[in-house]
Amino acid sequence: MTVVPAGPETPATQLSVNGQVLRMVDVETSFGPGYSRLPIVLRLLAENVLRNMKGQERNQAVEALHAWLESGTSTAEIEFLPTRVLMHDTTSTPALVDVAAMRDTLAEHGADPMALNPLLRVDVSIDHSVAVEEYGRADAAALNISHEIRRNRERYQFLKWASKAMNDVHIHPPGTGIMHTINLEQLASVVTTIDQAGVRWAVPDMMLGTDSHTPMVNGLGVLGWGVGGLEAQTVMFGMPATLRIPDVVGVRLIGELGTGTLATDLALTITHRLREVGVTGEFVEFFGPGVSTLAVGERAVVANMAPEYGATTGYFPIDAMVLDYLAGTGRTAEQTRLVEAYARRAGFWFDPEATPVYTRVIEVDLSAIAMHAAGPRRPQDLVPYGGIRKVLEQEAGPDLPGTGTLPDFPVALAAITSCTNTTDPKLLIAAGLLARNARMRGLQVPAWVKTSLAPGSPAAASYLNRAGLTDDLASVGFDIVGFGCTTCIGNPGPLTPAVAAAQNDGASEPVAILSGNRNFPGRVHPDVELSFIMSPPLVVAFALAGDAKRDLSAEPLQYLADGIPVYLEDLWPAREEIDALVLKANDPTDFRRDFLIAARDPQWRRVEAPDGAQYPWDPASTILRRPPFAAMTEVSLLGRFTAHPLLVLGDDITTDHISPASAIPANSDVADFLVERGEDRADLNVFASRRGNWEVMVRGAFHNKSVKNWLHPEGPTAQTVHAPSGETMPIWDAAERYRDEGEPVVIVAGERYGMGSSRDWAAKAQRLLGVRAVIAASFERIHRSNLIGMGILPLVMPADMRDKLLRLEPGDRIRLEAGEEHIRPRTGIAAAVVRSDGTEESFTVTAAVETGLECELLAVGGVIPLILRRTLEASARRP
Question: What is the per-residue DSSP string for 406-444?
């Protein structure tokens, strides 16, 4: 493993374990008084600071951490250097395409393209591309992976090229599992060792991932969080991540989960509570006696939902449960001894009675958690599982005639999906037991319901087989369809013909029932606006009911042939039964063995890749195109300018809205563009598969029928008004017109702009559309960072201007005094609305900029120009 190592001035002590003497940072002694009062996440950051920062900057960082203890907050910046980076195929593809294009730029400027190489380990999991085309059959997984490799072969050839042409890039093939599950089961060591000048150091396993759900590994005591691909690139090439010392919200857990409640219910409840109090961009750490009652699988479900509650982390410290998990997934006894010895010595070991200092404290009583769902459009909207009927009745209005062919709200998709709820064996075992009880009564899922089971790990198939539940799940349609993200990321395949026909006739509104983590409109399927998140056994129950409006707390799922009703309570397994079967089914040897078998899939091994330091672009490709922003010609977008609003948007515009991942609509401008270049309109795949082609992605920006552009509220999907002409046209065409006319553009939006996935294409598309600034009521953390990474200035509007700015009309413009000299962290920027009638109204916006590095990125035009400049400068200094 290659990392920036500890230096000679690092304060060190010795650790004797497994017959070795290792060196480690003496964090507690170096920090001094107050160390045990720090939240554990800040103790981990202190270790990183002491090991990697130098001289006066390090001393100032430690002093700032001391000051944090007095106030629970800070504006001071620190540097963070992880030991590794984790990506998936649809974030790694654009990131590595950028690297390939930057190598071309270096070569064109006389530098060695090999000068651009990752300086730490990069793992890429191919998990986001498998679609549920085959289901309800034993060979569905094998058939789906064949479809996946056929459709994505060119992209997979590129990823294989990257693993050969770049240092320390490791590709985990389709079928090996979901990245976050792979991280927990295979990659995470909790504590690792590195060599420095012949000395072996023990250090915490700390990482960054290009997916917002990276904090799932926090459930194992590993500190890591999600970043955009652009920020990951800076870390890959040796620059530290810079962050403000975070506020840390302590969530004190007491009690124990009761009978009938599962980790999903806890995660949804915490998501609701923390969104209510507001923790956007903050670190969350769980403490208190209730933590010790939760297994790592349960903790991981809660930690995974960190981006849903808006936090950077959802951290659970290291304790005996972590050691049990490591042993239970096949890690060696030597590794578990190292983890325990190091964590205790460094002060990272969890004490359930400890009460560190936190910015704020929230208490959650586990015994008060009840069965819940969340929906129909946001994961924080908590609903009692019996309350879905009421929510859907409010949705119905006068538009559903109720023909009787299907229910008004048929369960169109019933998907046990996502790392969130398939990594905890208890949840899958519970779903299997409910299926067994349904099978014993002869229950069947209605034909219109599309069912799927996509675990996060191939080991799940082994323990479900050993538990004897595979056939039970298959009897109600939940055969394994693959080991990847599937429905959760928008790859459910087509709806059943009956559901599609009823929706086209206006007779029914399809509903998705899933065990995922997000239910934004159109996310799981472009034609599905309503989705509910719930535990895997509840997914099976609603699939059996077939009607999303069924109140399963009071009404039967089905009636038997003799008229006897079958209720949820008749099928729900007891906690003791679940726990006993989990214990019986688990075999630690499954995890590594099944992972290696999947990695050796012959279909993957037959994918060939080109050689060479530079990628041989195919000018006819519709998958991979050299992006125009990976060039030395890119410049800063800062300055004094008066801009037209390209779009005016409301609240909760997600990265799924800005840059969709789901199926490319066959009747869209994007489809027309691809068909003109030889693609089959019936087999266009998903937007996520085209993230290596900037021409497709920019045309797909904001292509979501849920997005309402207030410049033209009733306008077609992905269109806007070109103010000078008054014409309505596709967003890309309008942006081109403004560019040709020399007119700058901005975007105006409401609260939580950019919530959801970490995808950097949500920012790249806006850069290619010519957007110089985004003015929003608030930003989600990762998208804010991605905007800056593309040189786009994020600005927070004052509350008293919100209504006026969201009512801008075509012809109104915004003037900004956004020169480089004005850009500082959290500083005010002079602005004005210039109305079409010539009147003006001045106000001040706040730069959503947190660090000095972010100011530098904006000044040079973003991450890619900065990397190119530094690489060329370093190359020029070499003899």
Answer: S-SSBEEEEEE-HHHHHSSHHHHHHHHHHHHHHHHTT--
